[in-house]
Amino acid sequence: MRLLTPRNHGHAAWVYTSLFGDGLVDGDHLSLEMRVAAGATALLSSRGNTRIYRSPQGCRSVLSAQVEKGALLVLVPDPTTCYAGARFEQHQDIHLAPGASLILMDLVTTGRRATGERWDFAHFSSALRVSREGRALFDERWLLDPAQGALSERLGRFDALGTVLLVGPASAAAREALAERLGTLPVTPGAPLVCSASPIGSDGLVLRAAATSPELLMHTATDWLSFLPALLGDDPWAHGN
After folding, report:
1. How does strand 160-167 pair with strand 101-109?
2. If both were cysteines, with which of 47, 85, 204, 213 could 200 make a disulfide (CB 3.0 to 4.6 Å apart)?
3. 183 lies in a domain?
4. Would the pLDDT of 186 be above 90?
């Protein structure tokens, strides 16, 4: 894995991960540790989708981040896409100091849709923990495994799943607006997009979405995060991968 640091017009440090061969193969194990110093802002993204190829023995990705007082971490990688036969475990552990902020986007999409491949991987598990001063603010683990039943049947019409997490003072105005906006959305049977918003303590919000296409999910998530360019001083979505 390479770390790229493109220039931007804002005040934040931008880092993009780039994988050799554009994905993970059997036996790969990535581990990334980062620290955002007090008062600083950092953006961590990726150069295109993280593709997980057939991996009988499995592969793994681990991220550990420390965000100091008054700092902001923006974690917005492109979607993870698991191909047929892939086995993948993802762990993200983020520690926030008092007054620190986190903006996180985590998207998962089906495999090679053009060839009819839908949720044909062997195993995908994800663990996300966000804590402040040693106390958990958000601790979620989920598993997609055909051993529990055919995934394409269980996920129905949906080809993409996403979570957006907003915590801390940097996103206060956006959280309020998004909570109000999603709280008034009607529930329509058979809709191509299903969304929800739930508060996390006194200064957090988790947004979730299931979409019938990766493109619709990405459009929805970036729309939710449309406040980022003003916050960062530059537009991360305008910088092509």
Report:
1. antiparallel
2. 204
3. yes
4. no
Q: What is the pLDDT of residues 31-88, one digit of tens each?
A: 999 999 999 999 999 988 889 999 999 999 999 999 999 999 999 999 999 999 999 9
Q: What does the alpha-carbon distance between residue 234 and residue 78 come to, in Å, rounded to a whole number? A: 18
Q: What is the C-alpha separation between 162 and 31, in angstroms, rounded?
A: 22
- Answer whether residue 148 is part of any domain: yes
Domain count, the chain: 1
Structure token pair of residue 12: 């934040």
In angstroms, rounded to a whole number, what is the distance separating the alpha carbons of residues 98 and 131? 10
Q: How confident is the model at residue 239 (pLDDT cuts 50, 70, 90)?
A: low
Distance CA 41, CA 102 (A): 10
pLDDT at 114: 79
Q: Strand (E) positions, the chain?
A: 2-4, 13-18, 23-24, 29-36, 41-46, 50-52, 59-67, 72-75, 80-82, 87-96, 101-109, 123-132, 135-144, 160-167, 193-200, 204-211
Q: Show the domain range for 90.
A: 2-232
